[in-house]
Write a structure and sequence with these properties.
72 residues; mainly alpha; two-stranded antiparallel sheet; 4 helices; 6% strand; EF_hand_dom
């Protein structure tokens, strides 16, 4: 029972982190097209500074997956 409780706690924590990250992503994705452009990133100095590093595939946009590495 203790292991089940611990596992449930971990799952709930991960779901909460994902929900928070999704809300943060939506804040930066101003036009709602599912990616954060370099111009949208300029609204936050920390994100703008990390943009090129976060843009792993070099397409000039941050996907939700790429944004998940943002440490703002």
């Amino acid at each position: 029972m203790k292991n089940l409780t611990m596992m449930l706690s971990v799952v709930l924590m991960l779901v909460s982190i994902n929900a928070y990250a999704g809300a943060e992503f939506e804040k930066y994705d101003v036009d709602g097209n599912g990616v954060i452009s370099e111009s949208e990133a300029q609204n936050d100095s920390a994100l703008a500074e990390q943009f090129k590093t976060l843009d792993a595939n070099g397409d000039g946009e941050l996907s939700k997956e790429e944004f998940s590495n943002f440490s703002g």
